[in-house]
Description:
The chain is an alpha+beta fold. The chain has two domains: 2-51, Winged helix-like DNA-binding domain superfamily/Winged helix DNA-binding domain (Arc Repressor Mutant, subunit A, Orthogonal Bundle), CATH 1.10.10.10; 71-145, Lrp/AsnC effector binding domain/regulation of amino acid metabolism (RAM) domain (Alpha-Beta Plaits, 2-Layer Sandwich), CATH 3.30.70. The chain has helices spanning 11-22, 28-35, 39-51, 84-95, 121-132; strands at residues 2-3, 8-9, 71-79, 100-105, 112-118, 138-145. The strands form two sheets. A four-stranded antiparallel β-sheet has the order 4-5-3-6, with helices on one face. Strands 1-2 form a two-stranded antiparallel ribbon.
Amino acid sequence: MQKTSDFELDELDLSILRVLQIHGRLSNVDLAGEINLSPPATYTRLKRLERQGYIRAYVALLDWKKMGYDLICFINISLQMHQPEEVEKFRQRISRLPEVLECHHVTGEFDYLLKVSIKNRDDLDRFVMKQLTPIPGIARIYTSLALNEIKASTALPI
Length: 158
């Protein structure tokens, strides 16, 4: 069993989570078949996992290149000041930018790391100059472009 903050996940719970990370659109009957459990028992476990927050959402992962996004960028940001109200304003502004796929508060030389989807270099210039630079409190912006995606996974190693 794996101990979590809410309760212990048993091997059947972990099996459900493993299968759904790879095949999120399985019907309850197919999921039950995958883990060798009856559909009603599988459904009960699944609903409990959802209710307790182990499953946050079901999504479709789009191919960013086919959708016209040619660049994935990683943008490091340093803030000038770290007062809680200023940090919260920054976080709220970043959260509203649709180009930002992920925002992480990090340790090290920079304060935040953004993963951003951008269509082209002109779009990157517009994003940095019109969206990021005007945000009050930003001291430094450092941008890296991903040349090639070697591995991308959303599955946790459970």
